Amino acid sequence: QVQLLESGGGLVQAGGSLRLSCAASGRTFSNYAMAWFRQAPGKEREFVAVVSRGGGNTAYADSVKGRFTISRDNAANTVYLQMNSLKPEDTAVYYCAARHITTSQAAANYDYWGPGTQVTVSS
Asked: I want to staple 117 with a disulfide (CB 3.0 to 4.6 A). Which of 5, 6, 59, 96 is the partner?
C-alpha cells in the first residue's frame, strides 16, 4: 500500500501561484511514477502532469504546459506541482496518484490516490 496526502491548495487570484505537495508513505516511493490529476465540478477527472520514478522525464497536459512544473524529491518521499499564471479554469480538486514503475496519462492506470486538495482561482 502507498498512502498519499496532498497539501498546499487554497484560494488565489488569477495570475497568482500555488505550490502543491503530495507526501507519500508506505512502499518504496522511488518505485512509483507520480502524477497529478484534477477534477472540476461536473467534469471528468483529467490528467495534469506526470513524473518518472527518477524525476528525469515529465509530461504535461496542453492546458498547463509552460505554466505548471512537476518535480519530486525521492529522499523526502514527496512530489510537487508548482502552478504559475493561474487561471479561473484551473479551479478544481487536485489529486496526486502513484503508479508502479511506468508513467501513464490515464487515471485508470493509477493504483493509489490521495484525498485531494481544493484549488480555487478567482477572476
From this structure: 6
pLDDT digits (tens, 9 = 90+) for 66-85: 999 999 999 999 999 999 99
Return the pLDDT at 1: 87
- 96 burial level (CB within 10 Å; 0-12, 13-18, 19+): buried
**What pLDDT is recorded for position 26?**
87
Mark residue 88 as left, alpha or beta (left: phi above 0; alpha: psi -120 to 50; beta: remaining).
Answer: alpha
**What spatial distance separates the first Cα and last Cα of the chain, rounded to whole Å?**
40
DSSP letter string, 28-94:
-GGGEEEEEEEE-TTS--EEEEEE-TTS--EEE-TTTTTTEEEEEETTTTEEEEEE-S--GGG-EEE
Residue 90 predicted with pLDDT over 90: yes
Nearest to 32 by CA among 22, 19, 44: 22
122 and 88 Cβ atoms separated by less than 8 Å = yes
Short-list 76, 65, 64, CA closest to 119: 64
